[in-house]
Amino acid sequence: QVQFVESGGGLVQPGGSLRLSCAASGSIFSIYAMGWYRQAPGKQRELVADITPGGSTHYVDSVKGRFTVARDNAKNTVYLQMNSLKPEDTALYYCNPNPRPRAWGQAYWGQGTQVTVSS
Question: Are 8 and 21 in contact (CB under 8 A)?
Fold first, then answer.
């Protein structure tokens, strides 16, 4: 059973920090790079960061230097530390493999965790 449960979102002022967590079930965690995605209202879902099983990381330019992705393979958990948050970071954040298995289609997205950056 593949499942992703995201947590840690909330309302934060600009310049603040949040740490997101994602608990994954199923055997895929140790095989795939894991990504953090976000979807803002009216926009397409985008990948913002990912981390390979070996710990190599990649970030979209808009979050470089502010976000840090990490994973605990023993706990099947991936984290996203978000610092210096900006209003444009407001979105619903999800975790999922990157790339996602083609056969999954739109299945196996979790409920996400809402991040709202506002004064």
Answer: yes
Of residues 17, 7, 34, 5, the one with CA closest to residue 86:
17
At 61 the three-state DSSP class reads helix
Calculate the alpha carbon distances from 68 to 1, 96, 103 in Å: 28, 16, 29
31's tokens: 């095989």
- Residue 85, pLDDT above cutoff 90: yes
Which residue from 39, 13, 11, 19 is spatially nearest to 80, judged by alpha carbons?
19
The model's pLDDT over 59-76, given as tens digits with 9 standing for 90+, comes to 999 999 999 999 999 999
Amino acid at 101: P
List the one residue out of 74, 118, 117, 108 whose CA is nearest residue 6: 108
Distance CA(118)–CA(88), nearest Å, equals: 9
Place of tokens 């967590």: 21
Q: Which residues contact 101 (CB under 8 A, 6 or more apart)?
A: 28
Give residue 31's pLDDT. 87
Place of tokens 């095989």: 31
